[in-house]
Amino acid sequence: MPTVLFDCDTAIPERKRHCYIKEMGEDTTQYLPSSDISTIPGTLSERGCAYCGAKLVIGGVLKDTIQMIHGPVGCAYDTWHTKRYPSDNGNFQLKYVWSTNLKEKDVVFGGERRLKASILEAFAEMPNIKRMIIYTTCATALIGDDPKKIAAEVQKELKDIDIFVVECPGFAGVSQSKGHHEFNISWMRDKVGTWEPKITSPYTINFIGDYNIQEDSYVCEKYFHKMGIQIIAHFTGNTTYDSLRGMHRAKLNLVNCARSAGYIANELKKSYGIPRMDIDSWGFEYCKIMLRKLGAFFSLEDKAEEVIAEEVEKWKPKYDWYKTRLPGKKVAIWTGGPRLWHWTRALEDELGMKVVAMSSKFGHQEDFEKAIARGTTGTIYIDDGNELEFFEVIEKVNPDLILTGPRVGDLVKKLHIPYVNGHAYHNGPYMGFEGAVNMARDMYNAINSPLMKLAKEDLRGG
Amino acid sequence: MMMADIMTGETSHLETSANKYFYADAKIVTAELKACLPWLNDMNKEELKELLNGVKERLLDITVKNSLNGELRVKNY
Lengths: 462, 77
Ligand code: SF4
Known about the structure:
The complex is a heterodimer.
Chain A: E1 19-21, H1 50-58, E2 65-70, H2 73-78, H3 92-95, E3 98-99, H4 104-109, H5 112-125, E4 131-136, H6 138-142, H7 147-158, E5 162-166, H8 176-190, E6 204-210, H9 216-226, E7 230-236, H10 241-245, E8 252-255, H11 258-272, E9 276-278, H12 284-298, H13 301-323, E10 330-335, H14 338-351, E11 354-360, H15 365-374, E12 380-383, H16 387-397, E13 401-404, H17 406-414, E14 419-421, H18 432-448, H19 451-456
Parallel strand pairs in A: 2-3, 2-4, 4-5, 6-7, 6-8, 8-9, 10-11, 10-13, 11-12, 13-14
Antiparallel strand pairs in A: 1-12
Helix pairs in contact in A: 1-8, 5-7, 8-11, 12-13, 13-18, 14-15
Chain B: H1 2-7, H2 17-36, H3 45-65
Residues 49, 51-52, 71, 75, 78, 137-138, 169-170 of chain A line the site of iron/sulfur cluster.
């Protein structure tokens, strides 16, 4: 069916090209939602800004780096403590937040002096930390501050430190996707190749587009290590600044989140000839494929099969328990972009659920091509969904569960529909074999919890 | 045509990283296809080649030639 205009969108007919319901026999050469274009003023978008894409998603995960946010304190505060990516060094990156705390005076007279003072103060306060990322924000980009110049000055003065500057003001793009892009390309241009990792295995990879959400990285890392594979860098789960500078030494780039980190894999392929292998790491069958592909690349097929056998033996009985209890349950996936296509087949083929609606905040048309190709007919596909559209979709498809972030999650909770955190998880990790069990358990618990039914009752009685 | 080679049990040359990657991808897709479409096992190499060429053309049609993905036409992308 051609793209659809929801009833709630009659006042903003431009939304029609963003919403699509797939019908039998259709493919993406006929209909493809518009995406990665400006949000139409007046819609209640759930998108984040470009700075958020660079800091909250990618850079902020680094466990040994000061994140200097050059802008008003709100930009820093809004991207602090809102995502669960732990580290094995006491969660340095979650504990602290740094901001130059820009004021009106600085907007008028320039913020560079304040930036320099903040950098020096941060390094002095944390003498063991020698690495820093500086992010620009709307205000500091508009007034024309030059953070690269300041970073170079400080590097000259302090010598043993290293600073990376990412120019990612919120307005630079239509969503957080622009910040992902900026970070990837700038890191590749400025930092890759400036540090030499110690090579301990003939089999080396970069694990790209995994952010250690509730310990995802540890799960996958365990599999790779069992196969004898060395991970040069995680881009960027539980990772260090310097390991990312050594990405050029890997023999293979294993790409999980193709949207937020596919760019750096492409650049590494162009500059260093490192192949890019795209994988899915959620769901039993996808994990098997991931390990088998990796095994085939390095001629480590036997090792891959050993890991698979061991993990399946351990987790299959638990997974099977949920497999008999989730079929037929209707689920909506309203997340960032790639999880639409990462999850839909795993939920449908492995757990027998029915994905009735998918919505992406920052996915590009490439993501919709993948989601629609993997998704089923009758499913509603939305780009940059707004609040009223979510209400209308819920009425149309009556889902048993919604996988989404806390913002939309709180909205659907008010309608007494269970939600599971599709960004930062409820009780993860969700990657790998054990992750698939955790995700199935969280979905089962959400659907079957009496809480939502009780919440509907008016306890005042009468 | 690496997939046809794998399907008919022929060995591939895997000197370069790119070739190793194609091999890994082809091997997994081949295993999936064989499991889903057992009649593939009855085809000879020529027939397989013809079939896979057709599949390749169709994939290119959907993902490149007739794709509505506007980004594919952005030169810098
Ligand atoms: S949109 Fe601009 S002001 Fe708002 S958080 Fe992003 S960078 Fe800061």
